[in-house]
Amino acid sequence: MQPYELSLTAAAQEIRARRMSPVELVDSVLDRIEQTEPHLRAYVTVTAEHARRSARRAERELAAGHAAGPLHGIPMGLKDMIDVAGVATTASSRVRESHRARTDSTVAARLTAAGAALLGKTHTHEFAYGLTTPQTRNAWDPGRVAGGSSGGSAVAVAAGAATFALGTDTGGSIRVPAALNGVVGLKPTYDLVPRHGVTSLSWSLDHVGPLARTVQDIAPVLAVLTGHAAGETGDADLTGLRVGVPANYYFDHVDPDVEAAVRQAIARLEALGAHLVDVEIPMTRYIQAVQWGLMVPEATAYHERTLRSVPERYAADVRILLEAGELLPAGDYLRAQRARTLMRRSWLEMLEQVDVIAAPTVPTTAAQADRPTLSWPDGTVESVSDAYVRLCAPADITGVPALSLPVGHDRAGMPIGMQLMGRPLDEAVLLRAGRALERTQPPRLLAPVPGSADAMISH
Q1: CA within 20 to 30 Å of 157's CA: 180, 182, 200, 329, which one?
Q2: Shared-domain flag, residues 412 and 371
Q3: Are residues 393 and 306 in the same domain?
């Protein structure tokens, strides 16, 4: 097994036991990036020398007996919305071609202090305003979308081109690409992870969170990002855990392979001791209107100056959305905020009856890159982006934490994701349940990147 094949947890154990050095690990992942980038284009910028300097520093510190923790010497990718001093933050847009961050974002500073080594900045759908990341290819099938907007981060982790990564989530942008590429992604509770130094899409919906290969890998990253222990994930006994199974909304217009895999995963939670409870998802008819009613005007307000001065530098799909935001009345925005308050209150009442809610992350696996819409058996036609945001948006609107983890593959071999959602600040409960479920599954494969052999990832 090559070092790049190791999960974060396994790599940290090897480094701590002195069986592998941070330099070996970083060099291996950089070599992997060289191998995968021509096929996948996960990175905007690769900061190879930056990563090697960090690895050498970590090696010296470890030799001197100064271990900073489980991220010491671990290579990471950061979504190109997250500032690192002296490195470009382009947001994958021509609008930001000449931008260089003067200071680190809070999350980058915390990860650096913990000893993590920056490999580079990963691609996003321009300014995180989309769900496909069109410049990046799916790690399992380059002919399919990567998902967005944190597509580069998810693809890098899935391909072994990063041991972990950070993304942002406004309408599903961590969880969607995590599900489509077969990795784990956590959208934490709103405002739990600092957003200082992170380019905004919609300030009342934006979240920053980690992507990794296993649920177990998420906990140490979350602990560094928040400054608080994320809880133990090793207990496989879920006796007494109340798992809400949606009776409406989350299984409507869902691909049969996705529904079957998610329901099988829910059955495994029950076999581990969890108690299943049917729940009714509240205010579902308002979800799409509230999501767009909040996000569109906030995004337009953020981009007001550059939209007027350099509109031609935006991609057409993003420019159209930004221009549409200028037409939205203030009253509609205020009504969306009021509806969000009512929706959050209803969700908190529902979450008094259960500990977690289990549901599909997205209704279908990765679409073909040239396919703009999905058609359902009842004749409903929906855009790919609307389909991907549909099941993720409620957790962004209400601010509750949501964890996406792989639960199988469809008949074409594409990954299927399930999300666990819980009460605010109950990330530890989601991680415990996710880890218990993860242990019931076979070892996870690295994505079979063209031109490379499949690699086994152990938990």
Answers
A1: 200
A2: yes
A3: no
Q: How far is 58 from 273, CA to CA, in rounded Å?
A: 42
Same domain, yes or no: 420 and 449? yes
Same domain, 197 and 315: no
Shared domain check, 163 and 75 = yes
Measured CA to CA, the distance from residue 310 to residue 312 in angstroms comes to: 5
Each residue of 228-253: pLDDT tens digit?
876 665 667 999 999 999 999 999 99
pTM of the model: 0.96
173: annotated active-site residue: yes
What's the mean pLDDT when you consider all of the chain?
Answer: 95
Catalytic residue from among 7, 28, 54, 79: 79
DSSP 121: E
Q: Do 112 and 189 belong to one domain?
A: yes
Total domains, the chain: 2
Q: Answer yes or no: do 173 and 310 share one domain.
A: no
pLDDT tens digits, 58-74: 999 999 988 879 999 99
Which candidate in 173, 200, 202, 385 is catalytic? 173
- Domain span at residue 390? 3-284+336-457
Residue 401 sits at φ, ψ, to 5 deg, of -70, 150
pLDDT in tens, 9-66: 999 999 999 999 999 999 999 999 999 999 999 999 999 999 999 999 999 999 998 8
Over 60: is that where the pLDDT of 458 sits?
A: no
- Positive or negative, the Cα torsion across 217, 8, 392, 436? negative
Active site residue 383: no
Active site residue 98: no
Same domain, 295 and 251: no
Residue with structure tokens 């005007």? Answer: 297
Report the distance separating Cα 202 and Cα 214, nearest Å.
28
Residues written for the chain: 459
CATH number for the domain including 50?
A: 3.90.1300.10
